[in-house]
Each structure stands twice: as structure tokens, then as C-alpha cells.
Specification:
One of its GO terms (biological process) is DNA-templated DNA replication. About 55% of the residues lie in helices and about 0% in strands. By secondary structure, it is mainly α. The protein starts with a helix and ends in a 37-residue tail after the last helix.
Length: about 170
């Protein structure tokens, strides 16, 4: 029933709040109550990117490994795998930078009226002679061939200067 969602919410919020004791409690309450460990593991995969993100990029690896471990051995043996992951997440630094930036991109797409801007010609592949003649890939700078970062636009002209990592005001 509703308690299923209440407990996963409490686990999520306890990890977000860096409370390792409460995180373990809510995890154990769910598992000892018969919750599917793979459900918890899937939620941990989401948490790794949504709440920890780039503050600790290895969190996603930890979550996927926990999911795979649970899948391979099941309960009750996988409880310690989930416990390790939950404590790791509670102790990890948190960042919602990517989560927020992706939300800003989605908002930009939803708010756009009319056809979406075309992909700039220099960013298009040119596998045929016709495409090359039409200007596809012309002027593209292949970054690995340069010692320093190159000056090159990667967004359509209409979006030049936009920074999805900063809060958008619409």
C-alpha cells in the first residue's frame, strides 16, 4: 500500500540528508518487510545521478554494481550489498547540477514554438559527396587534433550563449 512509497521516500530523504543510521533503518525496514531488493536497487541507481551526480561520479557505478549483485544472489545475501550502497550514498557529497541542467534543457524544448532549430552544418556528418557539397561538416574542428580546446559553436544559432547549468528564467 501507501507504506511502500512512504518507506522508499524516507530512505531517499535520509540518504539525501546524509543520515547513514536512518538510511540503514529504512532499508532494513523495507527488506525485512518483504520488499523486492531489485526495486530498492533500481531506486538507488536513480538516486546516484539525481542526488549525488558529479559530486561523486563513482556513485552510479556503485548503484549499478549493487543492482547486479542483488540480481545475481538475491535475498537474504544481497542485503549487505544494498546496505553498503545506502551507507556510501548517505556519506557521499551531493550535487543536483546535472539533474537541474537537464531539467532546464527539457524546459527549453517544451517552451520552444515552431520547428526546432536545425543542426548546424559543421556538426553534421558528411558521408556522401552530395552532403559535402552542401556544406555538411565544413569547418568542423576535430578537437583531438589540437593541443588546446578549439573555439567552435556546438548549439544552434538561436541558442548561442545559453547556459543550461544556470537557472533559467522564463
Amino acid at each position: 500500500g501507501e507504506e511502500h512509497y512512504n518507506c522508499i521516500s524516507a530512505l531517499h530523504k535520509s540518504m539525501r540528508g546524509s543520515d547513514e543510521n536512518a538510511s540503514l533503518y529504512w532499508l532494513a525496514r523495507m527488506l525485512e518487510g518483504g520488499e523486492d531488493p531489485l526495486y530498492v536497487a533500481r531506486r538507488l541507481v536513480r538516486f546516484a545521478s539525481e542526488d549525488i551526480g558529479l559530486a561523486d561520479p563513482l556513485a552510479l557505478t556503485q548503484a549499478v554494481a549493487a543492482y547486479q549483485g542483488c540480481h545475481f544472489i538475491g535475498m537474504p545475501e544481497c542485503e549487505v550489498i544494498l546496505a553498503q550502497c545506502v551507507v556510501y550514498f548517505a556519506r557521499a557529497p551531493k550535487s543536483i547540477e546535472v539533474y537541474r541542467a537537464y531539467g532546464n534543457v527539457k524546459e527549453c524544448l517544451r517552451m520552444h514554438t515552431g520547428p526546432l532549430p536545425p543542426v548546424p552544418l559543421h556538426l553534421r556528418n558528411a558521408p556522401t559527396k552530395l552532403m559535402k557539397n552542401l556544406g555538411y561538416a565544413k569547418g568542423y574542428k576535430y578537437n583531438p587534433m589540437y593541443k588546446e580546446p578549439v573555439e567552435q559553436d556546438y548549439l544552434p544559432e538561436e541558442l548561442k550563449g545559453i547556459d543550461f547549468f544556470k537557472d533559467r528564467k522564463t
